[in-house]
Design brief:
By secondary structure, this protein is α/β, with parallel strands linked by helices. It contains eight helices and seven strands; from the N terminus they run E-H-E-H-E-H-E-H-E-H-E-H-H-H-E. The chain has one domain (6-185, 226-252): 3-Layer(aba) Sandwich (Rossmann fold), CATH 3.40.50.
């Protein structure tokens, strides 16, 4: 294999993002861990570098901030000269009925999960165009195609990023850049563990009942999706065999 592809994964110090970084490392690519805290991002990058033939590379960035994203892309390009694969994965959840939904929470969720992918795409695409190669993968959710109660901001952001995916896919189609969205079902990460308590409280039921009512009831497999299963789909979307797949959404959701 030739030169390692540079893979920038946002929100990758833990959870699904970390699994995506790991899957690309395993595939022979060079992941870059990007997250809100440098020390934690470095720790995750070091763990990966001990396991795979890669360098430990970590950057700090807040994907919702214009300046932060611009600086991140500038620094990565100065150091590595290219970004071959961009995975917009950073995210967070907030649960409240719409009438109680705090406006500042709405803003944060939309800014991280919709504006973030827009900003990263905006600043990375010119470099991909220059090299006439790029793979952009946006981590949406089954909530990019369906809704659940109390998640108005999350569902809106995840639907929104599908629109961004489809639009940019058309704009960059002739530059050998593909843009796709992955829609995971429930993966047992901190994001999900933290919300079960709140969902149980809202409905006056146990966390186990909330898991089945909110997360697994529409799902055929009746089990959590593994982060590695989401990651494998990302590696596939960035593979040669997937070169003609663009503007698509692919569910990794156990039949949801
Ligand atoms: N866990 C699930 O069931 C599930 C299902 C579908 C989609 N997703 C999506 O997968 C992605 C990853 O989620 P996860 O479950 O691994 O959650 P997680 O909470 O384990 O990880 C999210 C990461 O994003 C980072 N992050 C948050 N805000 C950021 C910002 N402004 N800038 C940079 N990084 C930021 C966090 O620090 C964290 O490391 C999210 O977009 C989430 O919506 C998760």
């Amino acid at each position: 294999m030739g030169e390692k592809r540079i893979v920038l994964v946002t929100g990758s110090k833990q959870g699904i993002g970390y699994a995506i970084a790991e899957a690309f490392a395993q595939n022979g690519d060079q992941p870059i861990i990007v997250d809100l805290e440098l020390e934690e991002a470095k720790k995750s990058a070091n763990i990966l570098a001990e396991k795979y033939d890669i360098k430990p590379i970590a950057y700090v960035a807040d994907v919702s901030s214009h300046e932060s994203v611009q600086k991140l892309v500038e620094n990565v390009i100065n150091e590595f000269g290219q970004i071959d694969i961009l995975v917009n994965n950073a995210g967070l959840q907030h649960i409240d009925p719409v009438e109680n939904f705090p406006i500042e929470k709405w803003d944060i969720l939309i800014n991280v999960m919709l504006k973030g992918p827009f900003l990263l795409t905006k600043y990375v695409v010119p470099h991909m165009k220059k090299r006439q190669y790029g793979r952009i993968i946006n981590i949406s959710s089954v909530h990019g195609k369906t809704a659940s109660p109390y998640k108005s901001a999350y569902v809106s952001a995840k639907h929104g990023v599908v629109g961004l995916t489809r639009t940019v896919a058309i704009e960059v189609a002739n530059d050998n850049i593909t843009v796709n969205a992955v829609m995971p079902g429930a993966v047992k990460t901190l994001l999900v563990e933290n919300q079960l308590k709140k969902l149980a409280e809202e409905d006056g039921i146990s966390e186990e009942e909330a898991l089945h009512k909110h997360l697994l009831h529409k799902q055929a497999l009746k089990r959590f999706i593994k982060a590695e299963e989401v990651a494998a789909t990302c590696v596939y979307l960035a593979s040669k065999g997937a070169s003609s797949i663009t503007g698509e959404t692919i569910s990794v959701s156990g039949g949801w």
